Amino acid sequence: MPEIKPIRPKWKGTMSDRERFVSQLHYRPVDRSFNMEFGYWNENFKSWPIFVENGIKNNAEADLFFSFDRIETIGGRVWLSPPFPAGLVEETAATRIVQNSDGLLAEVPRDGHDTIPHFIRASVRTPDDWRRCKAERFRLDDPARRVDVESLKRAHPAGRDYPLGIHCGSMIGRIRDLLTMEGLVYAIYDYPEMVEEMVETACRLVEHFLDQVLGRIDFDFAAGWEDICSKSGPLVPVRFFREVVVPRYRRLGDRLRAAGVDIWYTDCDGDVRPLLPYFLEGGINCIFPFEVNSSGHPAESLAKHAPELRIMGGVDKLQLRSGRPAIDACLERLIPLVQAGGYIPFCDHRCPPDVNPDDYLYYLDRKEELFGMK
């Protein structure tokens, strides 16, 4: 990574980033809020003058550029190994047909602008497809799944001043990626045993990873990714989620708690509220990025589920592009949540390119005024 010259100083504080993060998500007093953001669309790095003129090309560089608090996560090979070969399959005047690493054929714009891909076909559609894919790409004894623990310990020493997380993969979201959303819905109905075996396989791969590192590295939190909700609610039947997915969460949660890891967030978009009781039952006690226009204001869910529930995110991205009075009103509603603890405020997804970059800097200034150290 090139040397990054920050555009703004780090927020003042009396605690380390690690102490602050752990205390804030345990509802304990802090010097000020943990300062982080989820990141930006790829288009922002090409269209925002503040990024272009300073040579900022990705989210990792932007974190340094804005002097956000440091947070790191360690992950392992807990999915396809090897992945499907990705690349161009066919090209038209307006679109490209590409295969991604999950083996899906997708139609994407030829000009490369950010959009949700239109998936055409999945490589796994039937139990026979799954058996073949599992034998080729989900082997537990794959040497690539071994973790170089000593190297990780050197990279993240015990005396570090930043929070370190362990990634717990995905029990159903990546399966949705493999089958497509429509394919998963049909498979739960047509081949429920196949889908449960896929969930079990995902769980065993994560367990294999956790067993190599837990107890050897001191983690502050666990992280996961599901993305199984839309604006109208869960993309999988709640009963299936409760009966098939939650028991696997419990298995992972037991391992985490035995190693002293009691904060576990998962990244899930859309309206997560119907699944919150089951996330909590399985041991996932923090939701990220908590999209306001799908899940409602974070105050509502915290009032219902705190102190067991924590939330990271919840700053309405639509308000960031609506001007400074809207930004003020949005942030001011979050003051009681930050004061109470169990909540870290930032944009409720990647910040879109239609946000005025000057207003975005204003947003960062107002965050510091409201949630920084007085």
From TrEMBL:
InterPro entries: UROD/MetE-like_sf (IPR038071), Uroporphyrinogen_deCOase (IPR000257). One of its GO terms (molecular function) is uroporphyrinogen decarboxylase activity. One of its GO terms (biological process) is porphyrin-containing compound biosynthetic process. It comes from the Bacteria. Transmembrane segments: none annotated. Residues 122-359 form the Uroporphyrinogen decarboxylase (URO-D) domain. This is Uroporphyrinogen decarboxylase (URO-D). It comes from candidate division TA06 bacterium ADurb.Bin417.
